[in-house]
Amino acid sequence: MRLPDLRRAVLEANLELVRHGLVLFTFGNASGISRNDSLVVIKPSGVPYELMRPVDLVVTDLDGKIVEGKLRPSSDLPTHLILYKAFPRIGGVSHTHSEYATAWAQARRAIPCFGTTHADYFHGEVPVTDELEDSEISSDYEENTGHAIVRAFRSRDYSSIPGVLVANHGPFTWGPDPAASAHNAVILESVARMAYFTLGINSQARAIERSLHDKHFLRKHGKDAYYGQRKEKK
Ligand SMILES: [Zn+2]
Q1: Mind listing the pLDDT tens digit for each residue in 180-232?
Q2: For this structure, is 120 an active site residue?
Q3: Which of 199, 202, 198, 86 has the alpha carbon at shortest distance from 151?
Q4: What one-character-per-residue DSSP string does 216-234 give?
Q5: Stated pTM of the model
Q6: Does 227 qualify as catalytic in the annotation?
Q7: Contact call for residues 59 and 73 (beta carbons, < 8 A)
Q8: CA 61–ligand 1 middle distance (angstroms)
């Protein structure tokens, strides 16, 4: 994506988080990366969404050095950068403190796959990271948050589980572009809410069987996907 287009896409992804009620005040942030230029576009820190313009977004390199923009980037930038470096196929990252996903993160419980809505988007439970050590909190906190996420994916595929709960903090989601990362944030909040209700109705509810989980994920993703309309061949 060209940089001006990426700026617009990142602004739109941030506004999408607001439209779906996932952010309070200025909490939450979305970013996107131009892999060709190795440049990241992210929301500025503390600017009200209703006043934000594409020009206010901050462009940095993968070390966090500001390349374009007068404002300070979101303080979570180092977490986003770790994810872009560790997960080479992602193009966008969103972070919110949406209530239900954050409640699961605070309870430090992974979200089991109780149904097909979850299975359509997350091929497995939505994992929760380990708690950060004191030393990881006292220095390079945001960067260490990124490392904790990457550790949670040591034996998971970040492409088929596009989100995580950071322990005692909240969700991060990602996708091929900024819009997809925001979409996955909305879906994750819905899945977290439904899982909470499911356990309220039946505290013994169990995750769905692997066969149904695989069926739903794989009909939508992967080489044999058939859900939705056939994509035009380019
Ligand atoms: Zn946060």
Answers
A1: 999 999 999 999 999 999 999 999 999 988 888 888 888 888 777 877 766 55
A2: yes
A3: 86
A4: HHHHHSSTT--SSSPPPP-
A5: 0.93
A6: yes
A7: no
A8: 21
